Amino acid sequence: MNGVFDLSDRVALVSGGSRGLGGAIATMLAEAGADVAMIYRSRSQDAEAVCKAIHRHGRRGWLIQQDLGETNALPAVIDRVVTEAGRLDILVNNAAVADMMTFDQVTPAKMEQTLRLNVLAPFFLSQRAAELMIRKGTAGRIINITSTNGFRAESLLAPYNASKGAMELLTGSLALELAPHDITVNSVAPGLVDTEIGMGFPLTPAFRSWADAHIPLGRWANPEEVAGAVVFLASDAARYITGQCIVVDGGLTCDQFPRLPFYTRSLLKGPRTRDAAYRPVPGSTPT
After folding, report:
1. Three-point CA angle 141, 37, 128, nearest 5°
2. Which of 2, 8, 76, 108 is at a distance of 20 to 30 A from 32, taking alpha carbons?
3. Domains (ranges, CATH) in the chain?
4. Catalytic residues
């Protein structure tokens, strides 16, 4: 790859890189030319499969098994990457947990676990990564994978919502403090993504069709569509972007009140038919 999207000679670290969105991010960074290290907790076979994909792109790959809940151990993870790879240019804080439950079911232990993995771990990985980037004079990139839940609440996910809201403000805070060192900090906020985790909540099958009908683009994202935004922010094409959030949600959060399924045929103009232009919402009665 050539030009402003070329990541050749750069080293990236992706947390939660063994599957799903993290695996797609790690693979696409390698496709763009980066060597990629991945942090994973337990699914070694999945992590090895992603590492092989990185190698198929002709790039170096490293696997680091680490429980991100052990925050005291995280600076050493960054040190290991720099020691083995020689540098660190890109940090992608992707790993996170989400448990679906009503707010009255949330225990102190569950809230603490969610905040520890979703907020504390990215913070301390970023802290050490930035320290070494500054020491080496690296114009680095820190990219936080947040969520549309960071600015739009969703029922049954109070701890997750809180953690992603915290990550959005953390992104801006780090962007301000690291800008003098030419280190940019941005976030990518996916909506519904077709991954094992995204489909793993205890919801009835009707949720999928209902969600599809309410997403303007009519479907969930695939992991590669989110990973593309990460590659952009990691590249020189985004070197003047910091403290910002790229939302990858198919238009979901821009629709304050879904009216299109109830827009009558007599009011439509132009050559497109109503059936081609609009998807009826289940349960609605179009005229």
Report:
1. 50
2. 76
3. 11-256 (3.40.50.720), 258-287 (no CATH)
4. 160
